[in-house]
Design brief:
- By secondary structure, the chain is α+β, with helices and mostly antiparallel strands.
- The protein contains 4 helices and 14 strands.
- The protein has a 7-stranded mixed β-sheet with strand order 3-2-7-8-9-6-12, with helices on one face. Strands 5-14-13 form a 3-stranded mixed β-sheet.
- Strand 13 and strand 14 form a beta hairpin.
């Protein structure tokens, strides 16, 4: 299990096997159309560029490690499907807006965290940036040399389920030299870092990106909701995704 193929970004873990395979920049299970609109890499730092899904592939993982990411990719696909359901959900005709069945889906938070780490590793590698070993460990659900945090970081204008095939990536270094990665996809903003900024800083700043207030960060995000504002009435919840995390 000590085989290490330097062309595979997971090679520091050992266990490389098979040929180097084509890995989608962003998991194919999360894409809905025929192309991906991506922003934040060296060739599209400022503006979105459209890439056919078949071309949004790089040879950066061996077969063994690629197959090892299948559970995380599958869960990310479930999140995509649940977000589409939320976007399309309307209160059933004839149902009381205040007393109607919730549309509820459920996903596993640790697998989404693995998917976010894997996606960051893909994009770091494509950008020619060194990979922190603890980010690689996180992608495979292994104990990490340093803590890795995944925050929901809802921003003004975020609409879960919207911007289906737009993927916005940004990375940088935090105030204390730690890595910080922003992933915005399907109308949700995620922030992954190896430093917990809460209680230390007013916000997280990545070059070229708006400041993300630490007050907006939610660790172990547990619920993604869709709600409606009734005419001359209150705002009511209609659909939700429950994100399951292990008990502390």
């Amino acid at each position: 299990m000590n085989c290490k193929n330097p062309k595979c970004w997971a090679h520091p873990l050992g266990g490389c096997g098979g040929r180097i395979t084509g890995e989608h920049y962003v998991s194919k299970s999360t894409l809905t159309g025929r192309s991906l609109h991506i922003k934040g890499l060296s060739f599209c730092r400022q503006d979105f560029v459209e890439i056919p899904i078949g071309g949004a592939v790089a040879n950066i993982l061996c077969e063994s490690h690629n197959s090892g990411m299948s559970p995380a990719d599958h869960e990310a696909g479930k999140l995509r499907a649940a977000l589409i359901d939320i976007l399309n959900y309307e209160i059933p005709p004839g149902a009381s807006p205040l007393h109607h069945p919730w549309l509820t889906s459920s996903i596993e938070g640790p697998l989404i965290k693995r998917w976010a780490a894997k996606t960051a590793c893909n994009l770091f590698t494509m950008d020619g940036k060194p990979l922190p070993i603890h980010l690689v460990q996180c992608a495979f659900g292994l104990p990490t040399d340093k803590p890795v945090f995944l925050f929901g970081a809802n921003q003004v204008g975020d609409k879960p389920g919207h911007e289906r095939d737009n993927f916005h990536f940004a990375s940088g270094t935090s105030n204390s030299g730690y890595f910080v990665v922003l992933l915005r996809f399907f109308g949700i903003t995620w922030l992954m870092t190896d430093e917990d900024p809460r209680g230390k800083y007013d916000g997280v700043q990545i070059e070229g990106e708006p400041l993300i207030p630490t007050a907006a960060l939610i660790e172990s995000l547990r619920v993604i909701e869709k709600s409606f504002t009734l005419p001359n009435g209150p705002r009511v919840q209609a659909a939700r995704i429950l994100v399951n995390w292990p008990q502390p």
